[in-house]
């Protein structure tokens, strides 16, 4: 029996012809869709839980920068078993809608690393007038777009805080996520006053310890 020999060039030509045909294009579309579904199938909303973390914060006119974060706990529910945390920053001008993906990652939970996307920051509490005085009890927020609240706790101590919300999940957020709120608090003794804190932010910046609490109450399933 005579068999026609097909060389490599002819095979490539036939394959290119098939790929550009309507049938070939339909097959390629189906394959791409299956790959997308497979990639998002590992995304999972997390259950109720709380993580308590802490580290160092540097605040300047360039933004808020976190470092040396650990997860001492208590870490409960979905966050139980957390051994480390990677904490993102807030860079640039103040905004209440940062929408930062992967802003924090918690490693160690049984269900896999938990990822937190920061979506919004709550407006700070206080008035512009109270930013000009160190009267005990004053609460100051630097601007309308700032989520920072500075409270004069005593003559030589201020409390600095902000809260926000977003979503937590494992894998990607494509197939489900859990509503999550976060709060950051820092107690400052040096310089210890509202006016001196604001001066430091606008000059050389200042460094302080900071603690954070993440609370998830999900899941919220994507329809």
Helices and strands, with pairings:
Blueprint: H1 8-19, H2 22-40, E1 44-45, E2 49-60, E3 63-70, E4 76-77, E5 84-87, E6 90-91, E7 100-107, E8 114-121, E9 139-140, E10 149-154, E11 157-170, E12 178-188, H3 194-201, E13 206-216
Antiparallel strand pairs: 1-11, 2-3, 2-4, 2-13, 3-6, 5-7, 7-8, 8-11, 9-10, 10-11, 11-12, 12-13
| Estimated radius of gyration | 26 Å
The percent range for helix content is 10-25%
The general outline is: elongated
Summing up helix and strand content along with how strands pair, one would put the structural category as: alpha+beta
Largest sheet: 13 strands, antiparallel
Distance between the termini: 60 Å
Poorly predicted runs of 5 or more residues = 1-6, 11-16, 27-42
Please indicate the percent range of residues in DSSP E strands (runs of 2 or more): 35-45%
- Overall mean pLDDT stands at 85
Overall tally of domains: 2
Q: Can you count the beta strands? A: 13
**Helical stretch tally:** 3
Order of helices and strands: HHEEEEEEEEEEEEHE
């Amino acid at each position: 029996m005579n068999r026609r020999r097909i060389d490599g060039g002819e095979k490539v030509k036939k394959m290119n012809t098939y790929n550009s045909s309507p049938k070939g294009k339909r097959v390629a579309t189906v394959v791409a869709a299956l790959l997308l579904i497979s990639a998002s199938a590992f995304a999972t909303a997390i259950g109720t839980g709380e993580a308590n973390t802490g580290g160092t914060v540097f605040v300047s006119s360039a933004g808020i920068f976190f470092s040396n974060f650990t997860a001492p706990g208590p870490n409960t529910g979905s966050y139980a078993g957390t051994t480390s945390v990677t904490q993102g920053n807030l860079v640039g001008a103040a905004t209440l809608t940062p929408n930062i993906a992967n802003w924090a990652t918690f490693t160690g939970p049984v269900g896999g690393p938990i990822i937190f996307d920061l979506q919004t920051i709550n407006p700070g509490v206080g008035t512009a007038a109270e930013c000009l005085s160190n009267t005990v009890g004053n609460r100051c927020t630097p601007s309308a777009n700032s989520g920072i609240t500075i409270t004069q706790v005593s003559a030589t101590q201020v409390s600095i805080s902000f809260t926000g919300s977003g979503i937590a999940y494992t894998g990607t957020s494509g197939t489900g996520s859990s509503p999550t709120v976060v709060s950051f608090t820092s107690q400052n003794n040096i310089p210890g006053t509202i006016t001196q804190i604001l001066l430091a932010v606008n000059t050389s910046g200042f460094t302080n310890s900071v603690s954070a609490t993440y609370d998830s109450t999900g899941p919220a399933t994507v329809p």
